[in-house]
Design brief:
By secondary structure, the chain is of the alpha+beta class. Helices cover about 40% and strands about 10% of the residues. A hairpin with a 3-residue loop joins strand 11 and strand 12.
């Protein structure tokens, strides 16, 4: 935290660089004997590493992050740009708010995905855009050549077209769009440090709300949802269904080119590693599974009670930037009790965390 001439403190919020495709998948692809495939993965890794290095600064704790109700005038403010297979952002404006769909399906999907994310946060949690204050939602599509990722850069969304052999267009999955934009929500609220368990929580929160955005847009209940992250991103012929599964971590893919999904579902198989910022994309499977267990135990629409509990923790101002799974779990139980008193919600939260091996009592 810095000060503004000795007066009010200025809160420095730290955006993290996180692509939806985790480094361990790209590392595996970069070693493939097919040089074209390996080169696409290597180029993506090099780009992502450069972006990550620019943002590697210690996250500074935000102050009270309690959201205030969005104004009744809250509305979409979306702009889509075409990067033209270059890396200069944002590119050429191709669709503004309120304009009719064009012939480029990628542009239309990006526009719709930004809207779906805005709608979930506004209608379910009374949050006005990513920052809670009507932040304009911008996105660039057709980024770079054969770029195998999508990311939030702290200011806007960026989508690659994929290489066509392993990954297809990254606007295909609305949960991917919601996942990345939720990194922005975390940036403006809990500001979770992107390393170890707090980093895995950062990833998990994005998976949770990415899945809820998909469920909300499709009108699905917890029992109807597939609980997959990145379903539809894998090209035909790839042995897998998605990048991650919240319902069954470790089962999303098993392909000679991608490797096998390494996510654990419980603390018994927690992965200790120095890679991937301490395994943030791997161990996020544990809190992901806890949320799935809670949401399906409560039933109905997952964005209502289960999602509300997670949102209360994320925006409540008590979640430390270096929070552990135990810290987060205890706050979810406390949030359930605070909002729903002695109802089934807090008991279901306790049970869900216990099932994944995290002590929340």
């Amino acid at each position: 935290m810095t000060t503004n001439g000795g007066f009010e403190p200025v809160i420095r919020r730290t955006p993290v660089f996180c692509g939806i495709v985790p480094p361990h998948i790209l590392d595996h692809l970069a070693q493939h004997e097919d040089r074209a495939l390996a080169d696409s993965a290597l180029r993506t890794l090099q780009h992502d590493s450069a972006q990550r290095t620019r943002r590697r600064v210690t996250a500074v704790r935000t102050t009270a992050a309690v959201a205030t109700p969005a104004p009744t005038t809250a509305a979409h403010h979306r702009t889509i740009y075409d990067a033209g297979h270059r890396t200069d952002l944002p590119g050429t404006e191709v669709r503004a708010e309120g304009s009719e769909p064009g012939q480029d399906a990628t542009v239309n999907r990006a526009y719709a995905g930004l809207g779906a994310t805005f709608d979930l946060y506004l209608k379910a949690y009374e949050r006005d855009s990513i920052d809670g204050n009507g932040l304009l939602l911008n996105a660039s599509v057709h980024y770079d050549v054969n770029y195998d990722n999508a990311f939030w850069n702290g200011d806007q969304m960026v989508f690659g077209d994929g290489d066509g052999e392993i990954f297809v267009d990254f606007t295909t999955s609305v949960d991917v769009i919601g996942h990345e934009l939720t990194h922005g929500v975390t940036q403006y609220t809990a500001n979770l440090e992107y390393y170890g368990q707090s980093g895995a929580l950062n990833e998990s929160v994005s998976d949770v709300f990415g899945s809820l955005i998909k469920q909300y847009s499709l009108g699905q209940t917890a029992d109807q949802a597939d609980w997959l992250i990145g379903e539809g991103l894998l090209a035909p012929g790839v042995h897998g269904v998605a990048l991650r599964s919240m319902k069954a971590p470790g089962t999303a893919y098993d392909d000679p080119r991608l490797g096998k999904d390494p996510q654990p579902a419980t603390m018994q198989h927690y992965v200790r590693t120095s890679r991937d910022n301490g395994g943030v994309h791997i161990n996020s499977g544990i809190p992901n599974h806890a949320f799935y267990l809670l949401a399906t135990a409560l039933g109905g629409n997952a964005w209502e009670r289960a999602g509300q509990i997670w949102y209360d923790v994320l925006t409540g101002g008590e979640l430390r930037t270096d929070a552990t799974f135990v810290d987060f779990a205890k706050l979810t139980v406390a949030a359930a009790r605070a909002r729903y008193q002695a109802g089934e919600e807090s008991e279901a939260a306790l049970k869900a965390w216990a099932q994944v091996g995290v002590q929340a009592s």
